[in-house]
Amino acid sequence: MFAHYYDLLMGDIDYKELIEFLEKNINLKEMVLDAGCGSGNILIPLVQHGYQVTGIDNDPSMLEIIKNKCSFLGISPRLIKGDILKPIEEKYDTIIMMFDVINYFRDPKELLENLYNTLKKDGKLIFDMYQFDYLKEIDNYIEDEVEPIPYIFKTNVIENELHHEIVVDGSVFEIKEYVFKLDEIIECLSTIGFKEIKVNQVFDFRKDYLIAYK
Ligand SMILES: C[S@@+](CC[C@H](N)C(=O)[O-])C[C@H]1O[C@@H](n2cnc3c(N)ncnc32)[C@H](O)[C@@H]1O
């Protein structure tokens, strides 16, 4: 299962600047939902810094990894196995959705609408997404590395789709992502009802970081 290799392959990422950006935009009193929390690389430092974060993810292997990490660290955030396309029971002051979770969805409108409905009045959604120009840079990309374990990561572009193929430990994983124009997403957020949208450039130059206010 790819979840078991996710942290290994993300191991060289320094999350510090991204966590600082989030902390600048979230109040300690807020109830936060990490949509597509994965193995907890964002959720865990936030919880350790006193933030009240619930994680939701639909991949049981990712949830197993985050649960093990939390129990090792002696923290016990609420973790939900669930689909972020389906209605979510509680309402939150802030939803974060980091590391291109939105790019996993062919039609982001349904997702953004569901998250809008999961926010309390005056809540905000913070997420990142690949810039459209990234499609030009990433076509025919190959990473052939031996550290931390031998792997080959290939990406091909077909229209607005990123087709990743990862070969690791004798297994082949295929992951598809969808890249959108910033204007389209801003229009979609406005149509759904978000009142104000701020676009930031931080951390990863290939991405935009959006804050959409309900
Ligand atoms: C690239 S990972 C990002 C993980 C985490 N946000 C981080 O920053 O480390 C994408 C995550 O989104 C989750 N995901 C994808 N589709 C989902 C869905 N429909 N409902 C819930 N989680 C989903 C995947 O299982 C995966 O853990």
| Uncertain runs | none
Bound molecules: S-adenosylmethionine
What number of structural domains do the residues give?
Answer: 2
How are strands sequenced across the largest beta sheet? 3-2-1-4-5-11-10
Which structural class is indicated by helix and strand composition? alpha/beta
CATH topology of the largest domain: Rossmann fold
Gross geometry: globular
Measure the end-to-end span: 37 Å
DSSP helix fraction? 25-40%
Strand content: 25-35%
**Which H/E pattern describes the elements?**
HHEHEHEEHEHEEEEHEE
Strand count: 11
The description of the largest β-sheet is: 7 strands, mixed
Q: What would CATH call the homologous superfamily of the largest domain?
A: Vaccinia Virus protein VP39
Give the rounded overall mean pLDDT: 95
